[in-house]
Specification:
By secondary structure, the chain is of the alpha/beta class. It is built from 23 helices and 30 strands. It binds adenosine-5'-diphosphate and zinc ion.
């Protein structure tokens, strides 16, 4: 017998099926999905690879004598299922990575020793820097690369675990530590699999509402009807607290009764303690929770238990989409609109697309849940490719929060130019007087700031792309400020007045959480506030601790970026204030409208979740803006129609797609040269195959908006097309182009950030 093997670490050229003889001693053990060692080319050491298929005959062009034998089996059992091997093929096609790379993204590192002792551990000193070093091939050996990649995934691990997972010796780790790449510290490694976090649950007997019954019935009917090769997709739409999770769990029970398995994706395990507790309570030993905090050995052990069939229901974040469940009956993606489902490192996959492919491959039912579905997802319903199941109201007494809009224009006209409007100040005072709590949301202060009109709230937009422009200091013109479009790269001077209302009071969006906190303390000296944003993570408290302290009412007010609007149930919060909806709308991203609507809706869901009625106050200078009005009225359909019209007009997803190629490196001249060569090459290919690249527009190369990052010069190419296939083909063509040493390439489709 012969095995077709994919190399674990292969350049594109070597990423194909390699046929090896199966030695008789291993004949019983070698199966598809096994990790094996094989001799390769003139390498002295064997290399690792995954068995793709077992075949009876070698390829016709290969004689028996030319074949070499598999030299060893790394792990006694297969590490991936045949279905995941197919998925890896698909990932190569879509995300331009080798199949070995795709599988490495899926499987945990092979680590079997579990300590329970104090030992030395390591983490990366500067992960961002390591990402760049990897991209530019700056590591000296494969061992160094493995350690770097391992710790990017794992954050930290015991030295013994790293040695095992990466097949390196202590001297390698010691070398990397001396070079400042690794930091050593001591830790206690656990022996037992850690239990899921404990949480008080008082689960009563639940009688499903009529809408829930309909939803469960529809999903159940699909479960029996669906065949491999068909996609049965549902969109379960309902606000927080409308009983979506209950529908997932009841559908899951039916799937398990049929002897099949269930996969549930959530944006972040840490933000969904209730979901985890409910799954653990109901499915007990059958459930596996893939936390990000698992040690390498725990992760490996959990993976093995899923593979062996002991675990039948898996809950986890993005990468759990690769959980090796066999006989999958149902995939649930909760909060499907969440950005965390898109990977921002190679391979840059979208877990939602992976979920569709897995469902299709095995004939599982796909259920996407959301209060505010992504525009692309709702559009699938409109096109008849997905079925909407609606949960129109909250379960029980809790009503929706009251949403009020404060018109900042009127405030300004009355001479009140504060970050806190008078109605908001009053509402905060009343809330604190009643010993209730409040949350204040402010937009993240990013690399780039938009410019907007203080009089009418409109942002300054690119006339070609309908995207808010952002200010950048031009380092080539003695730091003079100008405006740049993140989408087409066009540069504009700062305008003197607003194009909408001709007002001259233009301002950059700058107020951040810190400023809000300072002002808050001046306005409410008696109340206590805690701030949560990216800056506070590195401080004394982790996010989790901040949220817990707030939940225990150690603070009256929580001030933060969008991250505070997600997850978590604060029963005593009765007021949520949005300091500037205009800031949210002025994000330099085609999803600005969608994000604003989602955030405002989530915020409304935060207020008044206990027995207390809630109130939301939105401050804006554009009270008549469609998105803000739709959000205030909790009117998804209205938002969707408006947003869809914009996407169609401007050619953004689902009607048009964007391809992004970023080149970066330490030598500006080298990056520029590679950029020009790549651009010329792509233009020639497009001219040669006009059919395949129909209606694809490739913009000339330009500096990226973040033109220098950590000492690297960054340039980019952007392509637009109504056809996603054409974009994929273009990026694949770019991937084929010869690489230049010292220049890193990033390829992405419909990225969340164009920077
Ligand atoms: P969602 O996932 O939409 O936020 P959940 O399923 O978590 O909603 O439901 C919110 C709360 O209501 C939970 O505490 C849940 O136990 C409860 N619940 C859900 N459905 C019902 C029902 N039919 N009857 C009573 N309580 C329910
Ligand atoms: Zn533009």
């Amino acid at each position: 017998m012969y095995a077709e093997v994919w190399l674990e670490e292969a350049t594109r050229q070597f990423d194909r099926d390699w046929t090896y003889l199966i030695p008789p001693a291993l004949a019983d053990q070698i199966k598809p999905g096994c990790l094996v060692e094989v001799p390769f080319a003139r390498r002295k050491q064997p290399v690792r690879g995954y068995v793709y298929r077992i075949v009876a005959k070698p390829p016709a062009d290969l004689g028996e004598t030319e074949l070499r034998s598999i030299s060893g089996l790394v792990n006694p059992r297969p590490l991936v299922t045949p279905e995941l091997l197919e998925l890896a093929r698909e990932m190569r096609r879509r995300y331009f990575c080798s199949r070995g790379r795709a599988i490495r993204t899926m499987v945990p590192y092979v680590v079997t020793t579990v300590g329970d002792k104090k030992e030395l551990a390591a983490r990366l000193t500067d992960p961002d820097c390591v990402v760049e070093m990897l991209a530019e091939d700056e590591f000296r050996s494969l061992g160094h690369v493995r350690v770097a990649e391992f710790l990017l995934v794992q954050e930290s691990a015991a030295l013994s675990e790293i040695e095992q997972a990466c097949q390196v010796s202590y001297s390698v780790l010691n070398y990397l530590q001396k070079k400042g790449i690794l930091t050593f510290f001591s830790q206690i490694t656990r022996r037992e699999l850690s239990a899921a976090p404990e949480l008080e649950l008082n689960e009563q007997e639940i009688v499903l509402t009529e809408e829930q019954v309909d939803a469960v019935d529809s999903i159940s009917a699909a479960l029996t009807a669906v065949q491999p090769g068909q996609l049965q997709e549902f969109l379960l739409q309902g606000v927080t607290g409308s009983g979506k999770t209950e529908v997932y769990l009841q559908a899951a029970e039916r799937v398990l009764k049929q002897g099949k398995t269930v996969l549930i994706l959530v944006p972040e395990i840490a933000l969904t303690p209730l979901m985890v507790a409910r799954v653990s309570a109901r499915f007990d030993q059958k459930a596996a929770i893939l936390h990000s905090r698992l040690t390498p050995a725990e992760r490996y052990e959990t993976w093995q238990r899923i593979l062996s069939g002991e675990k039948k229901i898996v809950v986890g974040a993005r990468s759990a989409i690769f959980a090796p469940l066999t006989n999958l009956g149902l995939i649930v993606v909760d909060e499907e609109q969440d950005q965390s489902y898109k990977s921002e490192t190679m391979p840059r996959y979208q877990a939602l697309d992976m979920a569709r492919i897995r469902s299709l491959l095995v004939g599982a039912v796909l259920v996407l849940g959301s209060a505010t579905p992504a525009v692309e997802t709702s559009y699938r319903v409109r096109e008849g490719r997905s079925t909407r199941l609606l949960l129109s109201k909250r379960v029980g007494e809790a009503g929706m929060a009251q949403v009020g809009i404060v018109d900042l224009r009127a405030e300004r006209a009355a001479g009140h130019k504060h970050l806190f409007s008078r109605p908001l100040i009053r509402a905060l005072q009343e809330t604190f007087e009643r010993s209730e709590q409040a949350m204040l949301l402010i937009n993240r202060r990013g690399f780039a700031n938009s410019v907007y009109c203080c009089d009418c709230g409109a942002s300054v937009e690119c006339p070609n792309c309908d995207i808010a422009l952002t200010t950048h200091k031009n380092p080539w013109q003695s730091g003079k400020e100008h405006l740049i479009c993140h989408y087409c790269g066009k540069i504009f001077p700062l305008p003197e007045f607003c194009a909408e209302c001709h007002g001259t009071d233009l301002d950059t969006i700058g107020a951040g959480t810190q400023q809000a906190e300072t002002l808050f303390r001046e306005l409410f000296p008696a109340a206590s506030a805690i701030r949560m944003d990216l800056d506070t993570t590195s401080g004394r408290y982790s996010h989790q601790e901040i949220l817990s302290a707030f939940a225990r009412h150690e603070y009256d007010c929580l001030i933060g970026t969008q991250m505070i609007a997600k997850g978590h149930d604060f029963h005593n919060v009765t007021l949520v204030g949005i300091l500037s909806a205009d800031q949210m709308l002025a994000q330099s991203n085609y999803r600005a409208g969608e994000h604003t609507f989602q955030l405002l809706t989530q915020a409304a869901g935060r207020a008044g979740r206990g027995d207390l009625p809630g109130q939301v106050i939105i401050q804006t200078a554009q009270p008549d803006d469609q998105i803000i009005r739709a959000a205030a009225g909790q009117d998804y359909e209205n938002f969707f129609d408006h947003e869809l019209a914009f996407r169609s007009r401007a050619g953004y997803p689902p009607f048009g797609h964007l391809g992004l190629i970023i080149l970066s490196g330490r030598s500006e001249a080298a990056v520029k040269e590679q950029l020009n060569n790549l651009y010329d090459y792509l233009c020639r290919r497009i001219a040669r195959y006009p059919g395949s690249f129909a209606s694809l527009e490739l913009l000339p190369g330009q500096r990226a908006p973040l033109s220098r990052l950590r000492g690297r010069y960054r340039f980019r190419l952007i392509a637009k097309s109504p056809s996603k296939e054409a974009i994929t083909l273009l990026l694949r063509t770019a991937d084929d182009f010869r690489k230049k040493p010292g220049v890193a390439t990033i390829l992405d489709i419909n990225p969340y950030s164009m920077l």
